[in-house]
Design a protein that fits this description.
By secondary structure, this protein is mainly alpha-helical. It has helices at about 5-30, 40-60, 60-85, 95-100.
């Protein structure tokens, strides 16, 4: 049986590897000035999801479920909010402006 220190050390080591994988997959596209396609960011997303799961797993068992439930609810709310853009549903201008994350002045 591992001590709490050894468990935490394992989470930190895994987290460092996953964070490095996330950064190494994302850094090449940060400097790109032209439009990049979504598939360029999928490997970094994969590492980010694993890093999130590792972070939740490092929490005490008592608060893991509430944190996971809150994240799932926030993901579902984000899906409901931005699904018209994801699936190209027809929107009028006021609806389109309400969905914008940074308002109408994003340029």
């Amino acid at each position: 049986r591992l001590s709490p220190y050894d468990r935490l050390h394992g989470y930190v080591e895994r987290g460092a590897v996953l964070l490095a994988g996330y950064a190494l997959n994302l850094i090449p596209y940060i400097a790109v000035e032209r439009c990049t396609f979504l598939y360029h960011y999928v490997p970094a997303l994969f590492y980010g999801e694993l890093l999130l799961a590792n972070s939740i797993n490092a929490l005490s068992p008592r608060i893991q479920r509430p944190v996971a439930a809150l994240l799932i609810l926030s993901f579902f709310a984000a899906y409901l909010r931005w699904s018209p853009w994801i699936y190209s549903m027809p929107l009028d201008l006021p609806s389109h402006s309400r969905l914008a994350l940074y308002g109408a002045h994003w340029e």
